[in-house]
Amino acid sequence: MTHAISATGLTKAFGRSRALDGLDLTVATGEVHGLLGPNGAGKSTTIRVLLGLLRADAGQVQVLGGDPWRDAVALHRRLAYVPGDVNLWPNLTGGEAVDLFGDLRGGLDPARRKELEERFQLDPTKRCRTYSKGNRQKVALVAAFSSDVELFILDEPTSGLDPLMEAAFQQTVREVTAKGATVLLSSHIFSEVEALCSRVSIIREGVTVESGTLSELRHLTRTTITVEAGEPLTGLDGLPGVHDLEADTTRARFDVDATALPAVLAHLATFDVRALTSQPPTLEELFMRHYGKEPAPAEVSR
Amino acid sequence: MSAYAGTGRLVRLAARRDRIQLPIWILASAAMMSAGTSAVASEFPTEESRITALQGAGSSPAVLVMRGVPVGSDLGALVNFRNLASILVVVALMSTFAVVRHTRQNEENGRAELIGAGAVGRHAPLTAALVLVFAANVLFGAAMTGTILAGGLAAEGALAFGAACTVTGLAFAGIAGIAAQLFQGARAANGFAASAVGVFYLIRGIGDALGERSADGLTVTPSWLSWLSPLGWGALVRPYGQERWWALALPLALFAVCVAVAFALVDRRDLGAGLIPDRPGPAHASRGLRSPLGLAWRLNKGSTIGWVVGGAVFGLGIGSLGKTVKDALGTNAGVVEMMEGLAGGGGPDLVSIFFAAMMNTYGALAAGFVIQALLRLRSEEVGGTAEAVLSTAVGRVRWVGAHVACAVVGAAVMLALAGAFTGLADAASGGDVGVLTLAGAGLAQLPAALVVAGVVVLAFGGLPRLVVGAAWGMLVLSIACGLLGDLFGLPQIVRDLSPFTHVPAIPAVDLSATPLLALTAVAVALTAAGMALFRRRDLAT
To answer: Within a 10 A sphere around the Cβ of B279, how many other Cβ atoms?
Structure first.
């Protein structure tokens, strides 16, 4: 498998603060890769290094087989970028900005542009200064997805979009990946990442703390089990890997480590089980675990 | 009074934001004034020496345009003559920029929205800006008065000098207050208010040049035209020349009227909006926009046209003085010598010498234009649009190069037209210097302006966070050392630091290519170095 993006040991300091502290990131060609992390974790800095707008202090980085700092122009012909905070020229219209970005990138497909303008309901005749945040993001999205490129780098591209536009965005991402493009998607919207991304990297304070497919990540964490039996359930609190047990005599609800799951199920099988539900952890729970703030059990049950 | 709720808090916020910037304006002006005062005292210690200097200077329209009118031969009067006109420009610009900074700029970048959502009245932001600028102008005036008093001059004139500065600053604060309501962008508001400074300077200059000279040659009474310019009013207070105290009321009245109009406009418009509503624009980019160069031109088009037209108007004004120069100067040998000094040597044709002296001011204007155009690089970087462009297939050198190209071509057109219009106005009033000659003389200033451009690009590449101060500081130094070095009596080695010193004084002397080529080479080297530095650094906000 080839890699669209591979970065190892990236460090970047701004004055005394270290934005990146040995970050690793690998994005395979053709996948949609989610980049998760709280504000200030280093997501945007990582993306700017990948674009050659910042130069890493140390570490290796390759984008589409080239050095993003040295080969910036050649690489930028093959990728499109949507920043989290889209800034446009106040006196240009949205349509002018779309055409401009397309041409600066090496051309765009007018039919595709028209289709996307309709899909995202963008009025291209308005001056950029009159656009809301969501509309400015639409300009950047239409410009990016109208270009025929191999790699899309999207930095929280939907933070200002309404749910209808979110659906349009997801549809558009699926279309470009169906044609073989690679997408790096930084996002705070877990449902979006769960719906789109085949692999996810979670970063924290400039370091990658977790990276893998969603099922791999889930494997590393706990499943929530709710069980009801025809006889009193006993012995659960003594089992290794069981956490946050809430039990009355015949009903129990608990979290279990993925590794302990077979033993726990074997134990449950010795009772007269009437009902059993298991909930894999959501991405949100995965994410919270890495930031030391597990959601309270009551919250999970809702 | 709920319209003014929160004003006190906003004044403190504005003062906090300007705690470095405004003191620099005031202290630097005080330092300039202090140097100016002691220079006069040491250069012209005797009454005779002052009379000789004034009789020469007072009869030179070029000096009257740049310096204003002489009001007498005592030490204080000479201090006024040498400093007041330029100090008034400084205080006008300080007030203009400060008002726009705390009003329209806040609206443009969204800060005002956050502030307006608090318990803050509709009039509070403008009121706070005006309170701050009022205080700054009072301090500015006090600093001038104090500096002159420290130089050992009489109190009455010092007070008049300071007061003239304060009220002139307030008048331009009022003008900027209106501009901030009319324009949606802070750049446009600043541009409008700064061109008002330029236009009023020109009106004052022409009015003074057309003024009537007293029989002893020691004073000049400005013509009625100077009474039309707020920058003229400050000078008409006449510090150290039988002070005309009531003239202080004119700028104050203008300030009051402008403030009333500005508040009326505040009441009639929405936050963030200008008075000219937006119409739908083109849905597609024209062919001309679709490149870095097309974009740079689009971004600079409005201000470039403004500068070019301004330069042409300036040229018309100066050109129309040609005949006056010829009539006034006639046979005065002292004047010829004085003018030759100003123009850097030359032949006997007085009108040519006059125009040669004025060409340097065209060059300074062009330098101001290139600085303003190239600082766009920095504002694009800070505003995030540079990131958007540089993440496409546009290299850094190409991006900077597009902006440099726009600045260079704009400056060239502006200089050529300013020169040509000087020639047209001269021809219309019966002169014969020639349109093409003067257009060429204007263009000869281009290499000097390009050196300034090179310094801006170098600072942008190497010291992006300091580029604004470095750029305007370079212009002030170039003007102080080059254009005014002779009047300030600076040694040649200091004057040589200014690129304008090295431009041949066309049309008074023949064109010599060597200094122009050398200046161009320096400019190219500086620009290349700046681009190389920019290529090696991170984008920084």
So the answer is: 8
Sign of the dihedral through C-alpha B226, B228, B233, B238? positive
Helix (H) or strand (E) holding A277: strand A273-279
For residues B18 and B100, give the distance between their C-alpha atoms in angstroms, rounded to a whole number. Answer: 13
Contacts of A104 in chain B (CB under 8 A): 290-292, 389, 392-394
ipTM of the complex: 0.79
Domain membership flag for residue B263: yes
Same-domain check for residues B350 and B453: yes
Judge whether A203 lies within some domain.
yes
* Alpha-carbon distance values, A173 to A100, A167, A169, B374 (Å): 22, 10, 6, 39
Q: Which residues of A touch B285 (CB under 8 A)?
A: 95-100, 103
The strand pair at A207-213 and A273-279 is best described as unpaired
Among residues A135, A191, A131, the alpha carbon closest in space to that of A167 is found at A191
Pair A196, A50 in one domain? yes
Q: Which of B284, B384, B395 sits opposite A73 (nearest CB)?
A: B395
Domain hosting residue A57, numbered range? 3-217
pLDDT tens digits in sequence order for chain B, 541 residues long: 578 888 988 999 999 999 988 999 999 899 989 988 888 888 788 888 888 888 777 777 777 888 889 998 889 999 999 889 989 999 999 999 999 999 988 887 778 888 878 788 889 999 999 999 999 999 999 999 999 999 999 999 999 999 999 999 999 999 999 999 888 777 778 878 888 888 899 899 989 988 888 888 888 899 999 999 999 999 999 999 989 999 999 999 999 999 999 999 988 877 666 665 667 888 888 888 889 999 999 999 888 988 898 899 889 888 888 777 777 665 555 666 666 665 555 455 778 888 888 898 899 999 999 998 999 999 999 988 999 999 999 999 999 999 999 999 999 999 999 999 999 988 888 888 889 999 999 999 999 999 999 999 999 999 999 898 889 888 888 887 877 776 666 778 888 888 998 888 888 788 888 999 999 999 999 999 999 999 999 998 7
Enumerate the residues of chain B whose CB falls inside 8 A of the CB of residue A89. Answer: 295, 298-299, 385
Q: What is d(CA A114, CA A92) in angstroms, rounded to the nearest whole number?
A: 18
Other CB atoms closer than 10 Å to residue A235's CB: what's the count? 11
The tally of domains found in chain A comes to: 2
Q: Assess whether A152 and A22 both reside in one domain.
A: yes
Q: Residues B233, B364: one domain?
A: no
Phi-psi region of A239 (alpha: psi -120 to 50; beta: other; left: phi over 0): beta
Report the number of distinct structural domains present in chain B: 2
| CB contact (8 A) between residue B285 and residue A99 | yes
Indicate whether B215 and B339 sit together in one domain. Answer: no
Closest by Cβ to B284, choosing from A74, A95, A106: A95
Assess whether B264 and B304 both reside in one domain.
no
Specify whether B485 is located in the same domain as B522: yes
Query: A202 in a domain, yes or no?
Result: yes
